[in-house]
Amino acid sequence: MNLYGEKVILRALEPEDMEILRNIVNDPEVENLVGGWSFPICKKTQMDWYESIINNKNNLRFAIETKDEGVIGMADLKNIDWKNRIAFHGIKIGNKDYRGKGYGKDVVFTIMKYAFEELQLNRLDANILEYNIASKNLYVDKCGWKIEGVRRNYIFKGNKYHNQYMVGILKEEYLKFKGNRENV
Question: Going by fewer Cβ within 10 Å, which terminus of the chain is more open, N or C?
C-alpha cells in the first residue's frame, strides 16, 4: 500500500532505490544533519541491508517519491512497539535542492496520518541535533511535535560533542493540530 501526501508518495523500497539511498547515506552533508554513526556504504552492504529489512513489520522503511523528481529520500517508522503503540520516526531528504520546498512537512504529516489513523499508534518519537534548525522547525513549528528533553553532549561530530533534542507527538496532539490546520 502506497501512502499519498499532497506532494509525495511514500512507498515500499525497491532494489532499484538502493543506489539513490546509498548516495544519500554516503553524502557527508546529510550525515552531518543526523545523529548516529555513519560509515561509507558499498553496493553489497546496501543490498545486504535491504534484504534484511524488506519483511520486517517492526521497522517500516519508505522511499520518498515525487511526481517530478522521482525518489528524493527515505522515511521510516522504526522500533514499532505494538503493545505500547509507539514508534520512532526519521526522514532523510538527499539533495539540498529538495529541502525547503514542503516535501519534509508532507512526509511527516503523511507518516503521522498512517501511524495514528491506520496503524493506531499512540505516540511517535524522533531525535534532532541541536544545530539542525531546519528539522527542529519542521517537527516542532510546522508539525506540532514537542521537545521533551535534551541529551547533553550526546552526539560527537566535527570533533566536538553536540546536544540532541528528543521530540515526540501523541495521537491526540496530532488530531488537534490536524484539525486546527483544516479549519484555517
Answer: C
